[in-house]
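Duplicate of #3305? Posting structure anyway:
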């Protein structure tokens, strides 16, 4: 495929309610979108970086800069580009995995549309629907938390994930377990807020039968997670630390985790994400699909990925209404606790122009010929 142009667009979508984690409180989702133009088809890519570098080092405006000045020129220099060639072409640029993932995603969308191939089929998906979990932010009170969880369970969510941090961990977990019973699929996510010295506190979560604890320690403390795993009974799951298939194989091999949260943006794209699925599945480790408060574009791709056979746990692939009153595509809706996997060519979504304009902060068109 010959890429002729690329439109970068910064969006700001208000969230239906603030989302508080151990690293930030978000009132709106700010993100970067990419639209790639080719003679045969257009492709959409969503960059999952947030406005501030608080979850990882990447941030939206930095991603826009690296895409324009370092990634697109490398694609422009190649006469023809297939989606599988994007990562090798961009490999000389270190890190910036979320930016690279967005570019690869847009090329995938265009290529698969031109080939009339749905993304899920291309990846090797085996399911038409995927079970939905929901990630519940830190709240001001336990009562508010219980009301919020009750609302999500009424809506049909099949698994609850509670965001935790020191001071908001054992008591909210106890309260949710007592109120909703032992059958509730329940897990927690610390977003790196603890240290190994907190092992006694984290061990206090053991009696509550959690599916997993996600990323309690620092991103680069893989060995610390292996040590923590020896001191607690709840299975460990890594998010931030898993930056590649190699990192996944290493973490599983040394016992730093027994479950992996796969987020394509964090690992440089959907093709690397599929390799992580393959490696984890070969090593007997369950995986699930994480989320980064995606619009319908990123959600469509995540849901396709989550339809692969190794995704045996419900993901953070919630319905659009959990995040946005107005999405930029037709909303993903829950049906019996599941989301439908798109089956139209490419990502299988249509971006709604008016909804897109309403949330656009700026846009910038880049002619790839001019980068040669
Ligand atoms: O750690 O999984 C995380 C959102 C933004 C950044 C990091 C994380 C999250 C979530 C929400 O937990 C997942 C979602 O619903 O998209
Ligand atoms: Mg996480």
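Output from current build:
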């Amino acid at each position: 495929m010959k890429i002729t142009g690329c439109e970068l667009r910064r969006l700001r979508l208000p969230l239906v309610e603030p989302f508080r984690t151990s690293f930030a409180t978000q009132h709106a989702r700010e993100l970067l979108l990419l639209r790639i133009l080719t003679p045969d088809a257009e492709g959409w890519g969503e960059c999952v970086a947030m406005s501030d570098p608080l979850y990882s080092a990447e941030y939206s405006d930095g991603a826009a800069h690296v895409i324009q000045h370092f990634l697109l020129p490398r694609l422009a220099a190649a006469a023809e580009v297939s989606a599988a060639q994007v990562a090798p072409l961009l490999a000389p640029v270190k890190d910036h995995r979320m930016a690279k993932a967005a570019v690869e995603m847009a090329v995938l969308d265009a290529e698969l549309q031109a080939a009339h191939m749905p993304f899920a089929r291309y990846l090797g998906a085996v399911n038409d629907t995927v079970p939905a979990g929901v990630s519940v932010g830190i709240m001001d009170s336990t009562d508010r938390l219980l009301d919020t969880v009750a609302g999500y369970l009424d809506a049909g969510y099949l698994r609850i994930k509670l965001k935790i941090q020191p001071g908001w961990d054992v008591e909210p977990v106890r309260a949710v377990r007592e109120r909703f019973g032992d059958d509730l699929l329940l897990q927690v996510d610390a977003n790196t807020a603890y240290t190994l010295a907190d092992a006694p506190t984290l061990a206090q979560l053991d009696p509550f039968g959690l599916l997993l604890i996600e990323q309690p320690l620092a991103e680069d403390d893989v060995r610390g997670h292996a040590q923590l795993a020896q001191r607690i009974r709840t299975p460990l799951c890594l998010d931030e630390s898993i930056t590649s298939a190699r990192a996944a194989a290493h973490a599983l091999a040394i016992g730093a985790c027994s479950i992996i949260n796969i987020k394509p943006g964090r690992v440089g794209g959907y093709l690397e994400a599929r390799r992580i699925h393959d490696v984890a599945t070969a090593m007997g480790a369950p995986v699930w699909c994480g989320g980064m408060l995606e619009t319908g574009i990123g959600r469509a791709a995540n849901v396709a990925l989550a339809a692969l056979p190794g995704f045996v746990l419900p993901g953070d692939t919630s319905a659009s209404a959990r995040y946005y009153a107005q999405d930029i595509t037709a909303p993903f809706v829950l049906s019996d606790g599941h989301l439908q996997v798109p089956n139209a060519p490419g990502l299988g979504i249509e971006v709604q122009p008016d909804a897109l304009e309403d949330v656009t902060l700026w846009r910038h068109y880049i002619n790839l010929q001019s980068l040669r």
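Confirmed duplicate; merging threads. The chain has two domains: 5-116+350-371, 121-340. The two ends are 16 Å apart (CA to CA).
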